[in-house]
Amino acid sequence: MKSVTGLFVALLSNVAVASPLVLYTNDFEDIIGDRFTADTGYEIEVVQMSGGNLLARIAAESNNPNWDVVLFDGVGSLHSLDQQGMLKRGVSPDNEQYLTEQGRSLVPESRAWMPAGTTASCVLTYRTDMVSDQPTGFNDLADSQYRGMVGQADPAVAAPAYPCVAWLHYDMGMEQARELYTGILENDLRVFRTNGPTGRALSSGEIAVAMLSSPNAYAMQEAGEPINVVWPEGGAPASSRGVAVQANTEQTEAAEAFVNWILSPETQQFLTDNGGKDGLFLSPVEGVTPLTYGPPKDAVYNVAPADWADEHEAEIKNWFADQAVN
Amino acid sequence: MPSALSKPHRIGLVKPDTAVGIGISLILLVLVAIPMALVVVQAFMPGILQGDLSFAGLGNLSELFHRRLWRVSLMNSLYLAGYTALFGTLIGGALALVRQKCSSVGGTALDLCAWTMLIMPSFIIAQGWILFSVRSGIAAQWLGATWVYDAVFSPPGLVAIMCLKNYPFAYLAITAAMQWHVKEYQHAARLCGAGPLRTLITVRAPLLLPAILSGMVLVFIDTLGDFGLPAALATTYRFPTLPYTIFTAINQSPIRFDLAGVLSVYLMFILVAAVALYLWLLRCSRFDFLTAKAESGHQLVSKNGWIFTAVAFGFIGIALGIPLGSSLLVSLTENIGAGFVVSNLTLGNYAAVLQSGSALKEALANSLQIALIAATASLIVAFLAAYLITFSQFYLNGLINVISTVTLAVPGVILGVGFIFLWNHPWLGALGLNLYGHPFLLVLAGMAGAIPIAIRVLLGAMGQIPHSFMAAAALQGAGLWRRLLTILLPLTLAAFLSAGLASFGSSVFDLAVTSILHPPGYAVLPVVIDRMFQQGLYGESTASTLIAATLTLCLIQTTQVSVRRLFKHLLQTHQADAPKKLASAEVHHA
């Protein structure tokens, strides 16, 4: 009994005091903390969660947020948080001056978040040893030669998968996009939880073609997997990562310093070089050299407007989820 | 004696029972009922946490009939849980019998297998089966058994995997109940001309009905609430169940806590119905069959014991060997795609996760610490709760029973969200009780998850103790605590031990709750392992899992052996004598 009491005391004394800046992120968790502290002097606690868990936690904490800044892949979700009054508006970091034209186009009117990088949310990736006629566009995936051999991450679960579906609906119109997806689903589309399992299914030959996020696709190719990546004509559906400050944070100065730090060319280069497959992104700031094995330099990224993506999110996800069950 | 039982207040049981009952009810309210209620109330009063008490109507409930995904999820859950409860209990019961007939080595191996399956997170088991069954997996590539894919990734295949994962609930409940038996009943049947099989079916099995039903209910509700296995299998075979769909409802943007609450209501309704049926079945008859002739059950190696031993090891080979063997091979492999050749074998994954300052070491220490505290506290609460349900007429017994049972099936992620609602509320913060972001909340969440398991295991054993034992002791002047410690505890020691170890094992790997409640910078085992999985580091994640599971199993087995040795004298003499002494007291009282 004494030992149990001792453990209680030990556990109670092991309190995680949330005095440093608290960052919620679904990327770069292993490399951000030390570097940010070294560069700025601010202490930071990095909390990593999958995209879905992160949003659930933020929603559950809405009464009493435990976070100060968020770095999230999917500006549609940030727009949603902004609409709920959970993000500090009017953020204007000094390093905004380094934004590229593409980066500037992603800054919302409310200035509730700043762009932190863009990736293709789905590129056509196929196994060269299993596919004779390579697919050239998403329409090809309804072809019977690919029956049961195409896979995609679940837009309801995987953070980067919704921007893929959202762009197709935005670009083609709701009806046409539904026709496209109905054809692909009737061709026995395999829906995996996230991009990770989708990539592994492709790697193991479980499927022959995947609509895969560009970091996963190029990392697999670099690892020597027998796959080829097709960048769709007219550009790939894309997902933009954003960084935002919690509306009622008590650490405004450190939080804004974090946003500024993320937008510095040095930080962007650091994240590119040290982020592993997360480093395969299009930087929103000037002067960053991308990884050599990533997407082509002239690749076009198509991001659905954040407000449109947010407005239609529930409708598109529910439709997809209901159609995807057997 | 029944008169003494039906009117316990005549022998002075009311006051202590009521005090204990109120205490247990309060604990269950805080740990389980209030967090769950907050989640459910969200479905109908979305603004309640902001102080807005306006009622949004019952419209959300009808969405089940409009959303195809929800309908399919409901049907899938019922299919999976129903068939798994039936066949899982049959397997558990059959193995409990095999355990008595096979060699001691076989019996120990069966126990070890059951505990391993119990503490092993279901997603790890599923991953093992996936690695074995997929078209590029071991079965197809090594054994040429291409049919395995279609057999496993089908509704009956999932039932089979769930049976192999969840049978330990039935096995442990029935094994614990078989600790005591009265041979005279069987001898009488045999003298009347009944064969061994008929004796088993018409005498032994009915007497074990409380344990069988307990086991079956446990298997049903654990299957119904299991998230890990269907979710992991969903990476290859899409089979949405209610917990999986609830998980997606609160893991996507926009977050729909209200809809998750609606689905939780349906899930709880099914569980309450199952528990009500279980209680009704128990009340149809009396099962307090122990008498002064009761003997401690031990392994009876028959002349054909080797057949039973072979059956035991054959089962273990399938249930444990296939998934864990696959995980072991992956943990020893550099690159899965390169095949299982000597040049591809490595210990690098183990070295990587055990290196100095690794997240695994810190997470392991934290999780074992939390599980130990949670299990100890849970065991005390569960023992008292099981006592109340079985022996007292405390007016909230029904509530205790329902709360503790329903919690078994509620997905951990829902419980986690409920915990945030409660423990992160500004009102509690003003009182200095804002525990969200504190490791102690993981202990409370571990308790909330472990208490129901411990109660179910203990109820099966306590169901066999005649109420007259306790009543007779009370008549002799023994107070409540003395009766609990000198009669109930020794008679249910095996189940008590099982319950404590089951609580410990289940707490160590509770992924759902810990992933949503762990404080920033506080590493916990399931989260660390899951993160490796998410990153596709199968080698390191399987290595971490095997290290953690081996260590946990060693702790469980050491505790089990130590306690059995420590209480050997008690088990052989005190326990054997107890029924006789109590029966004697009963006779005197009569």
TrEMBL record, chain A:
InterPro entries noted in UniProt: SBP
Transmembrane segments: none
UniProt KW Cell membrane keyword: no
Signal peptide: 1-18
Keywords: Signal
Record has Signal as a keyword: yes
Protein name (database record): Extracellular solute-binding protein
Organism of this sequence: Vreelandella populi
Lineage, top ranks: Bacteria, Pseudomonadati, Pseudomonadota, Gammaproteobacteria, Oceanospirillales
